[in-house]
Design goal:
With 262 residues, the protein is of the alpha/beta class. The protein contains 10 helices and 10 strands. Helix content is 35%, strand content 18%. The protein has an 8-stranded parallel β-sheet with strand order 5-4-3-10-9-8-7-6. The two termini are 24 Å apart.
Length: 262
């Protein structure tokens, strides 16, 4: 199977489609977001991905235990506080898409609710990414599929039954260009957790373009994934891993990202 994003063919036998995940690494400054996009282009990335949500569209402003992170990189923070810092302001989106056109790189996003999809449709996004945390949100998948745009789904929070349900939902709602990314939703994730044979299994089960959303700290896992048939590689990118942002510490710096693309 082959999918196409911005006239680029993505399939086994083609160069891997390498996505630079900008995520929260803009640190609240649109000029920094532009600089990361420029670095992604220079590094040889195929595309840049952002995330489209507001704190109020993704969680509640509560400090109750259910809304507080208890371990890991963001231990002790409330979800609302984290998403307030990490989100990409919606008023930036038009400028980000225009900058992508100016420098000649594809830009698309992960929406987290239908209002985000509406915004991205207004900006004529060429594709959508369904984040691991949303792969069980079948109404969202159905809404995205109805746009007719290519859809990439991460599977880091789903079991096999949930993946199959998401794939069936996307197909039934009209998605023709669909890809699955094997993912481990740890930040960072140890390479030993990745079980890359899952890529081969996903491809054999669903006959879809497959790839890797990689949260490890170097390029070894991603390179091994390509050897096992991954057609898409997604990695977080930052200008400075020590900058202190929510995602900086498990992201690649430009030279490392260029090595990955090479």
């Amino acid at each position: 199977m082959t999918i196409r994003i911005d006239s680029r063919s993505i399939a086994t036998g083609h160069e891997p489609y390498v996505i630079a995940e900008l995520s929260a690494n803009h640190s609240g400054e649109i000029t920094r977001a532009f600089d990361i996009m420029n670095a992604a282009k220079k590094s040889g990335a195929s595309a840049v991905k952002i995330q489209t949500y507001r704190p109020d569209t993704i969680t509640l402003n509560s400090d109750r235990e259910d809304f507080r992170i208890v371990d890991g990189l963001w231990k002790g923070r409330t979800l609302y506080d984290l998403y307030e810092e990490a989100h990409t302001p919606w008023e930036w989106h038009a400028d980000l898409f225009q900058h992508a056109r100016t420098i000649g790189i594809t830009l698309f996003s992960s929406p987290f609710d239908t209002t985000a999809v509406d915004l991205l449709e207004d900006l004529n996004t060429p594709a959508y990414k369904i984040a691991s945390f949303e792969v069980i949100d079948l109404p969202l998948i159905r809404y995205v599929a109805a746009t007719g745009k290519p859809m990439i789904m991460s599977t880091g929070m789903a079991d096999l039954d949930e993946i199959e349900e998401a794939v069936d939902c996307a197909r039934d709602a009209g998605c023709k260009d669909l890809a699955l990314l094997h993912c481990v939703s740890g930040y960072p994730a140890p390479a030993s957790d990745y079980n890359l044979r899952t890529l081969v299994d996903l491809h054999s089960r669903y006959g879809l373009v497959t790839g890797l959303s990689d949260h490890t700290l170097d390029n070894t896992t991603a390179i091994a994934a390509v050897a096992l048939g991954a057609s898409i590689i997604e990695k977080h990118m930052t200008l400075d891993r020590s900058a202190g942002g929510p995602d900086d510490s498990f992201s690649l710096e430009p030279a490392e990202f260029a090595d990955l693309c090479t």
